[in-house]
């Protein structure tokens, strides 16, 4: 019979830190990973750069999280600076960029995965890859072991589930942990894609695909009510919008979008200019070149890729000379620059989502230890829990902090 003190299921951010932490405290640890390579999702975070954490204060940090109070105990023990110190201790240097976001100095997420893998191996963790847990065993109210897809049984005093959510399923996050937890009586709150592109009903030119707009202001409307407003960068994709501020808005209004509520996104393409200043600039351009047509003018005001889509919204000839435009036509251009509307049709699917919203109900997990309130010696960490946050390093810090707390609690001597 193969017996371990602790089994960690899932070798992502939470699982790697949990396994290494437990092993370094003198515990015999087995780490099980369904993919051939551990940390596959971690490799693609931050567009391959891996935004590890954010150096904002805890209270500010928690304002970006859906269930902030639950995380306080984990963050009080292991927060951003402790995480940075840990990576420095395993020879991975970091750097801080705009928005207090922390990245590996190399800008390579692969270095984070390799560093964690080396640390886990050095700590004495037994890692088994390409195996899937398809059953958890409970004896007299206590977790006792697992069965793998190949029929192999492993037993342990304690088990930490770090199986991730359902986003980016190609990396191994296919919702396995939800099913396993549910079989043990745990409640799974409604799961949906989060930090995901938003599909739009408008016809968008193919030229817009991959166009990045910097420093735009986006308002979200439900009928005539402004629900939210964000400033920053966004990106057009094929029949959808993405980028940092859109991903955050997708999380903020994910439930409404998932239920098909009518939401409109208003893009202010010139947020630094009021309508009056924009009109004055328009007039200066006309005075400099009266033979300029509307298309030529828009090329001075917009990215080249956006001109065709913008013109399609106007109700007059784009080849018309600017000094021949009526006041109403000039006003329509100004208003469209300040209020370019897109109608949302819903969220894109899990295969395009960065994280999953929803998960194991926090009412059934002890925030001081990450232990299940239903099954003794069963612990949870990372995205499997009903925890999600904005982009900016927040989600990885949650994974690392909860993984470490679960390991510390599981190895605590009674």
Describe this structure in words.
The structure is a single chain. With 414 residues, the chain is α+β, with helices and mostly antiparallel strands. The protein has two domains: 3-192 and 357-410, FAD/NAD(P)-binding domain (3-Layer(bba) Sandwich); 197-348, no CATH class. It has helices at residues 13-24, 40-44, 58-62, 68-77, 80-89, 109-122, 176-183, 244-252, 254-258, 275-288, 294-301, 307-313, 327-338, 394-410, and strands at residues 3-9, 29-32, 53-54, 94-97, 101-104, 126-128, 133-139, 142-148, 153-161, 192-194, 198-200, 212-222, 225-237, 240-242, 264-268, 340-347, 355-357, 378-380. Strands 1, 2, 6, 7, 8, 9 and 18 form a seven-stranded mixed β-sheet that branches. Strands 11-14-13-12-15-16 form a six-stranded antiparallel β-barrel. A three-stranded antiparallel β-sheet has the order 3-5-4. A hairpin with a 2-residue loop joins β13 and β14. The mean pLDDT is 95.
């Amino acid at each position: 019979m193969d017996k371990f003190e602790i089994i960690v299921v899932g070798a992502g951010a939470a699982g790697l830190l949990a396994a290494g932490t437990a092993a370094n405290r003198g515990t015999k640890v087995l780490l099980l990973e369904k993919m051939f390579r551990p940390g596959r999702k971690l490799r693609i975070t931050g567009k391959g750069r891996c935004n590890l954490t954010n150096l904002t204060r805890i209270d500010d940090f928690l304002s970006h999280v859906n269930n902030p109070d639950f995380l306080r105990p984990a963050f009080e023990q292991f927060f951003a600076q402790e995480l940075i110190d840990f990576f420095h201790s395993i020879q991975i240097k970091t750097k801080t960029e705009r928005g207090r976001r922390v990245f590996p100095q190399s800008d390579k997420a692969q270095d984070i995965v390799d560093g964690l893998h080396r640390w886990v191996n050095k700590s004495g963790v037994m890692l088994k890859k390409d195996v899937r847990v398809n059953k958890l065993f409970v004896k007299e109210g206590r977790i006792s072991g697992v069965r793998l897809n190949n029929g192999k049984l492993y037993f342990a005093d304690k088990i930490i589930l770090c199986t991730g959510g359902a986003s980016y399923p190609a990396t191994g996050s296919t919702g396995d942990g939800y099913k396993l937890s549910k079989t043990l009586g745990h409640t799974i709150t409604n799961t949906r894609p989060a930090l995901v592109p938003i599909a739009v009903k408008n016809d968008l030119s193919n030229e817009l695909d991959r166009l990045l707009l910097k420093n735009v202001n986006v308002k979200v409307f439900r009928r005539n009510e402004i629900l939210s407003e964000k400033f920053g960068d966004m990106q057009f994709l094929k029949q959808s919008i993405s980028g940092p501020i859109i991903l955050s808005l997708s999380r903020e209004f994910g439930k409404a979008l998932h239920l098909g509520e009518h939401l409109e996104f208003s893009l202010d393409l010139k947020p630094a200019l009021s309508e009056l200043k924009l009109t004055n600039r328009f007039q200066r351009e006309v005075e400099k070149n009266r033979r300029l047509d509307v298309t030529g003018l828009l090329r001075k005001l917009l990215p080249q890729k956006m001109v065709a889509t913008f013109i399609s919204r106007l109700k007059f000839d784009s080849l018309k000379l600017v000094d021949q435009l009526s006041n109403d036509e000039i006003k329509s251009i100004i208003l469209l620059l300040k209020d370019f509307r897109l109608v949302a049709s819903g969220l894109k699917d899990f295969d395009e989502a960065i994280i999953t919203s929803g998960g194991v109900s926090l009412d059934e997990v002890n925030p001081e230890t990450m232990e299940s309130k239903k099954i003794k010696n069963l612990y949870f960490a990372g995205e499997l829990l009903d925890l999600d946050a904005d982009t900016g390093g927040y989600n990885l810090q949650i994974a690392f902090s909860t993984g470490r707390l679960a390991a510390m609690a599981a190895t605590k001597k009674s």
